[in-house]
Automatic annotation (TrEMBL):
<feature type="domain" description="START">
    <location>
        <begin position="194"/>
        <end position="373"/>
    </location>
</feature>
<dbReference type="InterPro" id="IPR045096">
    <property type="entry name" value="EDR2-like"/>
</dbReference>
<dbReference type="GO" id="GO:0008289">
    <property type="term" value="F:lipid binding"/>
</dbReference>
<dbReference type="InterPro" id="IPR002913">
    <property type="entry name" value="START_lipid-bd_dom"/>
</dbReference>
<dbReference type="InterPro" id="IPR023393">
    <property type="entry name" value="START-like_dom_sf"/>
</dbReference>
<protein>
    <recommendedName>
        <fullName>START domain-containing protein</fullName>
    </recommendedName>
</protein>
<dbReference type="InterPro" id="IPR009769">
    <property type="entry name" value="EDR2_C"/>
</dbReference>
<feature type="region of interest" description="Disordered">
    <location>
        <begin position="137"/>
        <end position="186"/>
    </location>
</feature>
<feature type="compositionally biased region" description="Polar residues">
    <location>
        <begin position="160"/>
        <end position="179"/>
    </location>
</feature>
<dbReference type="Pfam" id="PF07059">
    <property type="entry name" value="EDR2_C"/>
</dbReference>
<dbReference type="Pfam" id="PF01852">
    <property type="entry name" value="START"/>
</dbReference>
Length: 713
């Protein structure tokens, strides 16, 4: 089956005159063929072609383009990131369906279409949070970080700030040179539970159970309520800091966006109303980012950052972690949409009331609960706006499923050269389509008829000579494999690694194609025997091939085969978190793992996947990271190195906005986190099931300052 979706999307980008152009175009995605026209039914397309193996799609979030708020996508070429198309829609649900369609089309085999529709496993990207990553030189880096998009960034930043400011006659954009986020963690694990403490004004209030309750620490609280409105409408209401917010948020005196980082993240400065005796007025400086889940739920996360100077007469309160979870519920018999809204806060009010502790002063509890009660304000505000709560979004696109035969018939009238031309190779300058006259467009279209058919890359790889791990010399001592990070306990480890229980991760079972259910993973194919935490001024590639590496030092004559996962993190310096997995079984010829080792990079990228988990960490990190599988090979730049006794996979986490956002958040809390990572190769056919983990590892409370220099060759 192949997906067809069509409708109007805004195409935008930096113009040659230094401004930003934006034009409404009619877009059609049919299988792997994508086209853009000025109007529906136009005989000549502005751009038309196929999405080949080098094309990728990235969610670029919520942006302001020429005064209009758009939810946007970026379609780009991994071999040349300057070849890109930026499109957007005014409705988040509409752009989410386009993202799903693009992801599904790009995930299909290039030459043939699978009989079963492919369900994307990637959730919408996370955004920058706290300190922005530096040093990413990947060609697939987001255009927001490149100089040629500075005009678009300035225009978006200026417009967005003016649209989202209340309580100030002249909104100003203040930036602090400091980019260091305020990072404290609750230390609560995934096993933490909520206890219902009271019901008030139609809301339920829950308190998170603390492992070590302290009288001076304000407990983490959550307020839950049901609002009769669509989830995307409530999301827009929460995100907006326009005048309407004062109709439902009783805690707010003024607020403004002081920095726009990207379409998913910004920094907000807020002044709260003073309604408690002689206590001084509080203000907040919050880093905010959002994401949308595949089920239509929205998450908005906050934490305090040091990006706005302290103000005279105000006490700076801190939100360690907090935000909103907006989840759609099943439609009732009346047909009206309903949404579950949750607001969570872990905060410190600061000042003398904070020093006295929650057990001696009532103000910290009062302020926290007042901020949570705004959920009731949202509910009442929406109920009063009847035309909003009953509105039905009319989507301007059609989604259909076609078989391969009918899809070929529908495309039969397309000119063959255009049909086979890669979409992003039809022009070197997207913007010229929108500045040109119709005659120029026709000439450009005709000049692109001779584009040759793309050739899929086929790499030649060195095949390993040995794939058995049992030593010819008998049993071997795994303790000899030691990296710069020591092995530690599963619980309570400090700057250490361990192997968690693999059954906590769910993979496809033998019957998953028919039942759709996932089962607990069995024993991994490899054991984790060591871990390194390196730092360097430059990115570190092919570590296992270095003469002084753990692989070369530990097992030149042991008959072992290593899988090395090198997670490359561009930060103030370049860091590499390196996992060393060693096999304990013979790799069967023709198996999925065998084909992964011997296959080309296109096959490897389509199958390499990761399941993350946060067993110990703050609420905000657990919610942001989640536990969904991530197709690593499709969203980050991956390099594969195969040697005599190893296979190394270098994953440049700075090459993807999705992962940069996750790592930007994780690094703010890294010393307080326990992170589990399970690597596996995705199975798609019956003979590739059940899936099996390559290996699983746990990193406990990793310290940035304990990274060691990479040994010289």
């Amino acid at each position: 089956m192949a997906t067809t979706i069509e409708g109007y999307l805004y195409s935008f980008g930096p113009s040659r005159q230094g401004g930003v152009y934006s034009i409404l175009t009619f877009c059609v995605l049919s299988g792997r063929h994508f086209s853009q026209s000025r109007h529906k039914g136009d005989l000549v397309s502005l751009r038309s072609g196929i999405l080949d193996a080098d094309h990728r799609v990235e969610d670029t979030g919520r942006q302001v383009v020429n005064g209009k708020i758009l939810y946007t996508l970026r379609l780009y070429n991994v071999t040349d990131a300057k070849k890109e198309v930026l499109v957007g829609a005014v409705n988040s649900e509409e752009i989410a369906e386009w993202l799903k369609a693009f992801t599904s089309s790009l995930g299909r085999p290039f030459e043939t279409v699978s009989a079963e529709p492919w369900t994307p496993t990637i959730s919408l990207p996370f955004a920058y949070f706290g300190e922005q990553f530096a040093g990413d030189t990947s060609p697939t880096a987001s255009p927001r970080l490149r100089p040629d998009s500075s005009a678009l960034h300035r225009q978006r930043e200026k417009s967005y700030t003016s649209l989202t400011t209340i309580g100030h006659e002249s909104p100003t954009l203040e930036k602090s040179p400091s980019s260091v986020g305020f990072a404290e963690s609750t230390g609560g694990g995934q096993a933490s539970k909520w206890k219902l403490v009271r019901s008030e004004n139609g809301l339920r209030f829950f308190q998170e159970k603390a492992e070590f309750p302290l009288v001076y620490k304000l407990p983490v609280m959550k307020a839950v309520g049901v609002v009769k409105a669509p989830a995307d409408q409530i999301f827009n209401l929460i995100m907006d800091y326009g005048p309407e917010r004062q109709q439902w948020d009783h805690t707010l005196e003024s607020a403004s966006v002081i920095e726009t980082i990207d379409g998913h993240s910004d920094v907000v400065y807020i002044r709260l109303r003073q309604d408690w005796g002689f206590s001084r007025q509080r203000d907040l400086c919050l880093s905010r980012y959002w994401k949308r889940e595949e089920n239509g739920a929205y998450s908005i996360f906050y934490r305090s950052v040091l990006k706005h100077p302290l103000q005279a007469g105000f006490v700076r309160a801190y939100i360690h972690s907090g935000g909103y979870i907006v989840s759609p519920l099943k439609v009732t018999g009346g047909g009206k949409p309903r949404t579950l809204v949750e607001s969570v806060l872990e905060m410190d009010t600061a000042g003398w009331s904070s020093l006295l502790g929650a057990g001696f002063s009532g103000y910290p509890t009062h302020l926290r609960d007042s901020l949570l009660r705004v959920v009731a304000g949202i509910r009442e505000h929406v109920a009063a706006q009847r035309f909003n709560s009953c509105v039905t979004i009319i989507k301007r696109h059609i989604i259909e499923e076609y078989t391969e035969g009918s899809l070929q018939e529908s495309n039969h009238d397309l000119a063959e050269p255009v049909k086979n031309a890669p979409f992003l190779s039809t022009s070197d300058d997207i913007e010229e389509f929108f500045d040109a006259t119709m005659d120029q467009i026709s000439e450009t279209f005709e000049s692109d008829q001779n584009v040759s058919e793309p050739v899929l890359p086929t790499g030649e790889h060195l095949k390993p000579l040995r794939v058995k791990v049992r030593s010819d010399h008998g049993a071997f001592d795994l303790s000899k494999f030691r990296g710069s990070v020591d092995r530690g306990p599963l619980k309570g480890g400090k700057h250490s690694f361990a192997e968690p229980d693999s059954s906590a991760f769910l993979l496809k079972g033998i019957d998953s194609l028919s039942t759709g259910k996932r089962v607990p993973a069995g024993q991994p194919f490899c054991k984790l025997v060591g871990m390194d935490w390196f730092k360097s001024k430059d990115r570190m590639d092919h570590i296992a091939g270095r003469p002084r590496s753990l692989v070369q030092r530990a097992c030149p004559n042991e008959g072992l085969f290593f899988f090395v996962i090198n997670l490359q993190v561009p930060y103030a310096l370049h860091y590499s978190l390196v996992f060393y997995f060693v096999t304990e079984e013979e790799i069967t010829e023709g198996s999925l793992l065998h084909r992964f080792i011997f296959g080309d990079d296109t096959f490897r990228n389509s199958r390499l996947s990761l399941i993350p988990a946060i067993p110990e960490g703050s609420w905000i990190v657990r919610q942001a990271v989640g536990t969904k599988s991530v197709p690593l090979g499709q969203i980050v730049e991956a390099k594969y190195h195969v040697g005599f006794n190893y296979m190394e996979i270098d994953l440049n986490l700075g090459s993807s906005g999705v992962v940069r956002g996750v790592m930007g958040l994780v690094f703010g809390y890294i010393s307080a986190l326990v992170v589990d990572m399970a690597f596996f190769i995705r199975g798609e056919t019956a003979d590739e099931l059940p899936e099996r983990l390559i290996g699983v590892g746990r990193c406990s409370h990793i310290q940035l300052d304990k990274a060691v220099d990479l040994p010289a060759n």
